[in-house]
Amino acid sequence: MRKFTRGDAPDFLKNKWKAWGERYKNNRETNPGFTFQWPTHEGQKINTLLEPFFKKQTDGHCSFCDNFPIRTNEDSIDHFKPKSIPAYYELVCEWENLYYSCHNCQQTKLEQYDDLLLRPDDLDFSFDVYFIYSYHSHKIDPNPILSDEEKLRAKTTIDIFGLNDEGHIAARRISLERYEGKKRLGEDIEVNDFAYRFTIIE
Questions:
Q1: Cα(121)–Cα(119) distance, rounded to whole angstroms?
Q2: Distance CA 160, CA 105 (A)
Q3: For 86-117, how does the pLDDT look when each residue is reduced to its tens digit (9 = 90+)?
Q4: Contacts of 95 (CB under 8 A, 6+ apart)
């Protein structure tokens, strides 16, 4: 998880997200089996319209694990507060509830939510404050200097997004080895071209 700055919502979302949320809420309350479909704006689904805004914010990386690149054939937008939970029905199109995300993070998180979850766009969020990265095991752990409550927030985030699953561990090791190899060869390096940028020490 790497900090990013969230920009302003595009105008079409500012103007319509509440109405879209109310419509979804009404549909779910009328028919619990109702399946969410992204609303459309000027003939295009809004997830397609929103994707460039999200990619710009995170340099094309997953908001949660920092994987890169995200495959274009995947649904790349996650509802932080799940759209399946009645209390959050109306947030289904809220700008601050939507995050650019890889398939792996979405499939691990699914409909889980906890108020302890860290957000990478929170003003006071920093990877180095909440986590430590092991260059031996390639795992992420809560920073041991944190308070018990902050450690729990870090652990909850690691668990819900599966940040220490075998796939992430292997991919982080490979990405770091690729970066170090290019650095040894004196090749030009653009940090944003690498996944898991929090592993890179400049």
A1: 5
A2: 9
A3: 999 999 999 999 999 999 999 999 999 999 99
A4: 6, 9, 13, 14, 17
Between the alpha carbon of residue 54 and those of residues 16, 31, 106, the distances in Å are 18, 31, 15
Provide the token pair at 189: 């390096």
Distant-in-sequence, close-in-space partners of 52: CB < 8 Å, separation ≥ 6 = none
Alpha carbon dihedral 173, 178, 183, 186, in 10-degree steps, equals: 170
pLDDT category at 131 given cuts 50, 70, 90 is very high
Q: What is the pLDDT of residues 29-73, one digit of tens each?
A: 999 889 999 999 999 999 999 999 999 999 999 999 999 988 766
Hey, what's the torsion of the CAs at 7, 61, 163, 145, to 10 degrees?
Answer: -60
CA distance 167 to 164: 8
Length in residues, the chain: 202
User: Taking the alpha carbons of 156, 129, 104, 172 in that order, is the dihedral positive or negative?
Assistant: negative
Is-contact 103 74, C-beta < 8 A?
yes
186: left (phi over 0), alpha (psi -120 to 50) or beta: left
Domains of the chain: which residue ranges? 11-161
